[in-house]
Amino acid sequence: MPLTSRRSAALNGDIRVPGDKSVSHRALILGASAVGETRIHGLLEGEDVLRTAAAVTALGAQVDKVEDDIAGSDAGPYWRVRGRGVGGLAEPASVLDLGNSGTGVRLLMGLLATHPFTTVFTGDASLATRPMGRVLEPLSRMGANFTAREGDRLPVTLTGAETPAPIRYVLPVASAQVKSALLLAGLNTPGRTTVVEPRPTRDHTETLLTHFGATVTVEDQPGGGRAITLAGQPELTGQQVTVPGDISSAAFPLVAAAMVPGSRITIGGVGVNVLRAGLLETLAEMGARITLTNRRRDSGEDVADLEVEASPLTGIEVPAERAPAMIDEYPILAMAAATAAGTTRMTGLGELRVKESDRLAAIARGLAAAGVQVEEGADTLTIHGSKKPPRGGARIQTNLDHRIAMAFLTLGLVSEEPIAIDDSAAIETSFPGFAALMNGLGARMSARTEEAENP
Ligand code: S3P
Question: Boundaries of CATH 3.65.10.10 in the chain?
Fold first, then answer.
């Protein structure tokens, strides 16, 4: 499914983006681990999350979508999960295929590491290249056993511990997925499981665990880190969860409106958890005009409406310490940098090499193909913006990476010549309806080839 985006006039309108992917996975997993019924409003109905819904169903939870909530206080459709209680999941009858989803597979490995049965995990060609040792190694310290393909890749066969042991584990990489896998393993483990993170990462798991009734304590560490401790074997009870709009999805229309001259848009109900909102800070430093209004709190998460209007952007230094708070936003930030005046240097990007694709390489290759001057280092990216629109005229290989696809489509809106992507299918993992939503604002994204439009 190729898709082409073309230079567009000003973007205008009020939109909402789909639910937060991270929160959606966690709400389903904790709902499945709770006693009673959980109602999830605003769940992301993207492929990644639907894979997690299918997985927890295969593990014995009941998951369905309820179109009408006449009796409840919250109107509108919701997802209902009838859980099995902590430690109550059952051995699945067949392989769990998590598709493209690193979060789904790693969090479920954690959860099942302390259930005494065997699960086989697999995924698509992208997920099969990604490292699983970062979760499997600490989970084996808790008593789980596993076999994996060379390099700790999928498929993985995991047998959960009969008698799980709590651990204290210092994360070698800043990863919310690894932290969350260990906390979820700690649910069915007696005693206290502690994860120490040298740099704070997104804390949705901690927030939702508390929301479902677990006791989680967080201690600040010298040097800015945190130690997170879960008291094992809590009784979790079904809850009402409202999923905020995904800031990692909002990032695309946000940057589009900041870049396309004359634009002004509002994105309602976006999660602005400070551990996710590094892009807002970075864009503000570049000169973007973004205002947060109607700030509120829902299911323990900070939410706001984002108003953005186009303004000239300037290149900056993006500090490495900020990477965990905007790790998924570098592809779209790089597009903003390509249109800014001056050089933007981004450091501490090593983790980008093990995302849905090697994003550092994909950004550098794609920008160079679109006529932007860019230097790729081992874990750095330097982009030389020029105030002029980039040349464009590139065909980008997306390699099953949704954010690479959406980032380059966004750049096409300000390029002299169109930018095409070879395959838009991966966008469905996180942002169903992306092109239609953008086109509703005035963007020009279509499946037509250039020849068809200009015969
Ligand atoms: C996520 C954590 C991040 C992020 C991913 C979602 C999560 O990955 O890139 O898209 O939901 O915990 P890492 O934990 O590997 O940094």
Answer: 3-19+244-453, 21-242
